[in-house]
Amino acid sequence: MDKLKCFLIATMALAFSVGASAAIDTTAVVAEISGNSTAILAVGGALLALAAVAVGIKWIKATIFG
């Protein structure tokens, strides 16, 4: 367990020292995420539509058999 703690502390120290000395360019990542927004919205909309259909079927079954 001590080795794990030492490893985590060393990793955190390295991460903070690298972040302090150099700026990270995130423009490519942000552009990639922005380009995928239409696909993400389409998948999310499809999932919401399927959930609405499932709830509708449940309500119909409840009125018939309930």
Shape: elongated
Separation of termini?
57 Å
How many β-strands, per DSSP? Answer: 0
Taken as a percent bin, the fraction of beta residues is under 5%
Query: What Rg do the Cα atoms give?
Result: 24 Å
Broad structural category: mainly alpha
- Average of the residue pLDDT scores: 87
- How do the SSEs run, as a string of H and E? HHH
SSE blueprint:
Layout: H1 2-21, H2 27-35, H3 37-65
Task: Characterize the structure shown.
Helices cover 88% and strands 0% of the residues. With 66 residues, the chain is mainly alpha-helical. The protein has one domain (2-65).
In short:
This protein is mostly helical and 66 residues long. Helices cover 88% and strands 0% of the residues.
Keyphrases for this structure?
66 residues; mainly alpha; elongated
